[in-house]
């Protein structure tokens, strides 16, 4: 097993979900691993973010940073290969939704996955079972892993930690209820983790030693225009629903930190941890903001690689500007971002 370097700055990662847009996070992680100056402590992920988290951790077990980069590439290239040939083939616009896929997604408005896919076929299951060694992830990973899913009957957040990891737990985190059957684990049904946390940040604060948390965000924190068309409004409401839990969690964190500072009572462990937390952020607004929400289901390789390259570029800019802040000071003002006056 590959051990951490004690002298390296430690950093925890919070990886947002977003379907195919998660390839942007692939690029971010690839650049961080290539840079090699940080040790990762905890990794929290939802949906595509959870896939990225486990790909990194799985590859690390086999070959350190280079093994993690290889596993991330194998996962996303596998996503492209497993897709319908219509998706995998070159198209004029790499971000265009293939007609067959658009038609299938239209059908999900009128038919449930239990009608459209009664056998519950899911090619993603074959891919993650082939690539990820869940037994080693449960028992040997040096990272604290947190995979978010939503209990379908209560809306409660379910966090799968290292000892709970399985193909079902990972697939539960990415289970869109209009596309897939609910994932059953110990007799309980689970849907996509984005409904409850996208991603969950509090476990990084509560369970991890590192005080530095890097948010890798795919959803814009603010939209430039108000949607007016019916399709646009539906997509915006869906996006807001998936992002609401994360925004609420970050607002609560800021409010609690402000309350601790205003009270002047900072001797307690919680107060010290609140004051000592340092946040950093890499976001995909420049690369993803102009893309239609439907591109989250575009799985052709050219599009995924384009997003990977954008993620790498953003991460390299962040490293050049803020890498030295890790371990010393925050590089993003969460008060301004999440709870402005």
Could you walk me through the main structural features you see in this protein, from its secondary elements to its overall organization?
This protein is α/β, with parallel strands linked by helices. Helix content is 49%, strand content 14%. The protein contains 14 helices and 8 strands. The chain has helices spanning 22-35, 48-82, 85-88, 99-107, 113-116, 123-131, 134-139, 167-173, 202-207, 230-263, 269-276, 285-288, 301-322, 334-338; strands at residues 10-15, 39-46, 144-151, 157-161, 183-185, 188-192, 212-217, 278-283. Strands 1, 2, 3, 4, 5, 6, 7 and 8 form an 8-stranded mixed β-sheet that branches. β1, α1 and β2 form a beta-alpha-beta unit. α1 (22-35) packs across α13. It is globular. The relative contact order is 0.18. Residues 13-205 form the PNPLA domain. The active site is at residues 47, 192. Keywords: Hydrolase, Lipid degradation, Lipid metabolism. This is Patatin-like phospholipase family protein. A motif (GXGXXG) lies at residues 17-22.
Any descriptors?
341 residues, alpha/beta, 49% helix, 8-stranded mixed beta sheet, 14 helices, Acyl_Trfase/lysoPLipase, 14% strand
